[in-house]
Amino acid sequence: MKILGISCFYHDSAAALVVDGVLRAAAQEERFSGIKHDAGFPGQAIEFCLDKTGCGINDLDHIVFYDKPLTKFDRILSSYLATVPFSYNAFRTAMPAWLRRKLWLPQIIKKDLDYGGSVLFIDHHLSHAAGAFYSSPFEKAAILTVDGVGEWATASIGQGFGNEIRLRKAMNYPHSVGLLYSAFTYFLGFQVNSAEYKVMGLAPYGKPLYADLIKDKIVRIFDDGSLQLNLHYFRFHYGLAMVGRRFERLFGRPRRLPESDLTDSDRNLAASVQAVTEEILLKMAAHCREVTGEPDLCLSGGVALNCAAAGKLVKSNLYDRIYIQPAATDSGGAAGAAIYVDYSLTGRRDKIRQPYFSLGPAYTREEITSLLTDHRIPFGTESPGRIVSRAATALAGGKIVALFHRSMEFGPRALGFRSILADPRQAAMKERINRAVKFREPFRPFAPVVIEEKAGDYFEPEMASPYMLFNFHVRESARKLIPAVTHVDGSARIQTVRRDNNPLLYDILGEFEKLTGVPVLLNTSLNLRGRPIARTPRDALATFVSSGIDLLIMENIIIDKSELDSVSLNELKLSAGQD
């Protein structure tokens, strides 16, 4: 049974291919197009999934889309009709895309892919639920999905047991904690459906001074975590912006201009909406426990990637164990949809855990060598042991090292396959990488990666976190040891590593510990600001030559920037820009 899942046309388009119940390939379209959070049809991601698994397009048994466009269209029309005449501009803007493409998905899929088989559709939140439960280690669990909006649902509660999923309750549009958070993202001058994580990173620099005002005027929160937005303060349900003048008057200030200097008011607004979001998510999770009676929780949807809220959920002890789908946004919906259809159509009884490692594109040493030779770049080839030794020694000496090896990650986090590593012991390293490598805002934190069995010495609570999805508390005794990865509030979004998941990164951490006594490194994604994570050797090389990275390791190949003269480096920057 071969089933291709697709998500597209909103944000984070992706494709995922399931063969006999196992997720074999998955990738976001942004990694191929270079457009961050690309919403377009994922043609290149689909081609990759087919190539990786050796499938022809008509070898597929089914193609499944991650939501139901007709139901979503009904919601959009209903919303616009209810707000006439204010909705006219939004209606006029939205309708061409719907009438030309979004309503004709089966025809588009068959035409664009030259596909002759069946096209299926499942509910958006069911895609999220399936992506979380079927990739979890649990045989049965509560399921909570929370995002901006699917068709009508903005949050849902369900249960998974064995090979079945049942959604039991839902909260519907326009009342949405995801849209509430996105409204503040917009008001703070950041990009909606892209930069909500910046609000989360900014929040610890402020105080939740506006939290009571938000709950008094903007959102009413009920004991079960459901909520009611005061739509007088919003425009997303009828306009082309999230909020308008009433929102500005409520907070006594205009919307922040993008890229302008941040103020105390910005920081306090971020802290306030983060506090309100955490309160809502905790109440939702508590009600989910009451409804399902399950001690374990699976979580998905874009709000699930709020790692600060997820960390609070862990500390609440509402559940024995919590699992978050690593690709929790719309990209992961492609995988969830395909897996759900496989279980539904086959009646497969045994639940197969779907790990999110090694799902994306990989490149051979020959492909890498050919690229470097064509650009006349000096490089060395080393044994695995020498790679580990050179990387750890460089890191201990204050160098910045990039790793590009094996198959790339699926989802928003770099997990050591397309990563930039640095020494967490140097407090100045955070500012250095933000300024000279990532070219991004100075308030943005970096994540620590740590050997799993040593994590408890530095972070609490003691639990595995292989996908970098929860905020942990950095122990007081460790904060002076790893200041570059300790956020201003003493938290850290950690990744724990086992040798069987990533032996190269695990061994580098081990060697770094031998040299420094610290089994922790700073880990951030191999990309520049505004660009997706590097997919190809060419992408990695372009990032390397355009930033302050000192050493680039691609498989068993090492490129040392100190061995490139200034003339060659300038030529490479020009070439990378052209490519």
Looking at this protein, list some descriptive labels.
579 residues; alpha/beta; Nucleotidyltransferase, domain 5; DHBP synthase; 3 domains; eight-stranded mixed sheet; 23 strands
Describe the structure.
The model has no long low-confidence stretch (mean pLDDT 95). The protein is globular. 52% of the residues are buried. Strands 13-23-22-14-15-21-16-20 form an 8-stranded mixed sheet, with helices on both faces. The protein is α/β, with parallel strands linked by helices and 579 residues long. Helix 9 crosses helix 11 (264-292). Strand 22 (551-554) and strand 23 form a beta hairpin. Helices cover 38% and strands 19% of the residues. It is built from 20 helices and 23 strands. It folds into 3 domains: 2-68 and 81-132 and 328-346, Nucleotidyltransferase, domain 5, CATH 3.30.420.40; 177-324, ATPase, nucleotide binding domain (Nucleotidyltransferase, domain 5, 2-Layer Sandwich), CATH 3.30.420; 365-578, DHBP synthase (Alpha-Beta Complex).
Helix and strand topology:
Layout: E1 2-7, E2 14-19, E3 22-28, H1 30-33, H2 43-53, E4 62-65, H3 69-82, H4 88-100, H5 105-113, E5 118-121, H6 124-133, E6 140-146, E7 153-161, E8 164-172, H7 177-187, H8 196-202, H9 211-218, E9 219-221, E10 227-229, H10 245-251, H11 264-292, E11 296-300, H12 307-315, E12 321-324, H13 330-346, H14 365-374, E13 380-381, H15 384-396, E14 401-404, E15 418-422, H16 428-436, E16 447-451, E17 459-460, E18 471-474, H17 476-479, E19 491-493, E20 495-497, H18 503-516, E21 520-525, H19 537-545, E22 551-554, E23 557-560, H20 566-578
Parallel strand pairs: 1-4, 4-5, 6-11, 11-12, 14-22, 16-20
Antiparallel strand pairs: 1-2, 2-3, 6-7, 7-8, 9-10, 13-23, 14-15, 15-21, 16-21, 17-18, 18-19, 22-23
